[in-house]
Amino acid sequence: MFTGIVSDIGTIRTAEQRGDLRLVVGCHYDMATVAIGASIACSGVCLTVVDKGPDWFAVDLSAETISRSAQGVWSVGRRINLERALKVGDELGGHIVTGHVDGIGEVVAIVPEGDSHRVEVRVPANLAPYIAPKGSITVDGVSLTVNGVRDDPDGTCFGLNIIPHTWDVTTLGTLSAGQRVNLEIDVLARYLHRMREHVANV
Questions:
Q1: Is the four-CA dihedral 10, 12, 18, 21 of positive or negative sign?
Q2: Scanning 106, 108, 125, 139, which has the fewest C-beta atoms within 10 Å of its C-beta?
């Protein structure tokens, strides 16, 4: 489990196809405190540490994980948001995040608003019912609050207000229109939708 509060930005150093895709990710973590088998969220995807060095760790990605991730996110040189797994007693600063990508969004607009940035993201039709104003969503591993939702003929879009701190300490500051991003809906919204669906079918 995670909170969506990014604690480091890593850089993919190597990507080697060996059945699964093996990535080596450079980071600033004290790797002496990271065990083999530990979970680290990489741009919103929960991955398992399979090897490590003084300033890097390695993870394996299955074809299923790659197919459900935003295009280009696992490229060599790509900077990715990192978060270590939540420990009992840690501050829950964001919201409960599982590290399971529910869908891929597309950034359609980025507009400065004061010192912040307004970012608009288009979502797949199957995710639209789970997104509500003032609800939580995870974008590339970052816990954010939905400012507004708009249902257009060509799809549903939601808006985010990215404050300067978040813009500076995550990869969101490098977003551009047309870029694909990993999305995880609020786990509470997922269960509520399932409950309503089940009651309707009983």
A1: positive
A2: 125
Q: Is there a single domain that holds both residue 78 and residue 107?
A: no
What is the per-residue pLDDT for 198? Answer: 65
Whether the CB-CB separation of 109 and 120 falls below 8 Å is answered with yes
Report yes or no on 50 lying in a domain: yes
pLDDT for 187 beyond 90? no
Give the burial class of 72: count Cβ atoms within 10 A of its Cβ; 0-12 exposed, 13-18 middle, 19 or more buried. Answer: exposed
CATH number at residue 15: 2.40.30.20
Residue 85: which of 46, 126, 54 has the closest Cα?
46
Residue indicated by tokens 């079918």: 201
Torsion 177-182-188-189 (CA) sign: positive
Q: Tell me which residue of 197, 182, 193, 181 sits closest to 129, measured CA to CA.
A: 193
Q: Nearest CA to 45 among 28, 13, 70?
A: 70
My answer on whether 22 and 77 are in the same domain is: yes
pLDDT in tens, 135-167: 999 999 999 999 999 998 888 999 999 999 999
- The parent domain of residue 124 ranges over 103-201
AA identity, residue 87: K
Per the CB < 8 A criterion, the answer to whether 173 and 167 are in contact is yes
Could you tell me if residue 110 is inside a domain? yes
Number of domains in the chain: 2
Token pair 């065990």 in the structure block, residue: 35
* pLDDT over threshold 90, residue 197: no
